[in-house]
Amino acid sequence: VIFMQSAADSNGNFNFCPLPTGAVFDVVAVAVNGAGVAYNATIATGVPGGTALGPIPITAELVAPTGPVTFQGYVTATTGTAPASVVASVSALQQITLAGGGTREVTIPAELASQSNIALQSNSNCPAGAPLQTNCAQYTLIEPASNPSVGNFSAGQITYAPPASGNVPYSIAASASVPMSGGTPDCSPSTQTTSVDTNGNPLKATGGATVIPHELDFSGCS
Question: How does 5-29 read in b/e, with b if 16+ C-beta sit within 10 Å?
């Protein structure tokens, strides 16, 4: 879940304020330069609110083809007997390894021109094979096509590990809510996740490509 977002100024500075007292956060930095070259996500874990992190390194994706990946898929919703009108918030996640062991999925903010908040109000644009009696909408997430660089905040310092090479796995999550409700959850369950593409293969990012994730289907909606 993204708690707060901020854009850097022309000098690369940004801040988050106000934050809950005593809370600990993961800070995720992403970027695309003016030439369209994307950078990997850099993640600082375990950062107490109020901490000055200093410079956060980001690494350009220089392995061809450069550029971010575009995830473009569909979300559907039904009451079970009729199409359902819901709002879906869609996000992309990458899994990181924590300093103390174990893993966690971290939301990677989508780049500009993404469409991550979508209204399911019509069944006129449903894709072939969508469940019957559903409303449908398409989302677009523009994301780094590389694995993240991760560092853990400890004793006032962070050492960032370089991005892992090889495949770049992602998962896509969508949360359904009642329209005009301020985020009241809808459907059962109210969150759907997929880690495979439309062909059932593991969902992986390729620079400059458009990748179609498996459809996310909500049911039991109001």
Answer: eeeeeeeeeeeeeeeeeeeebbbbb
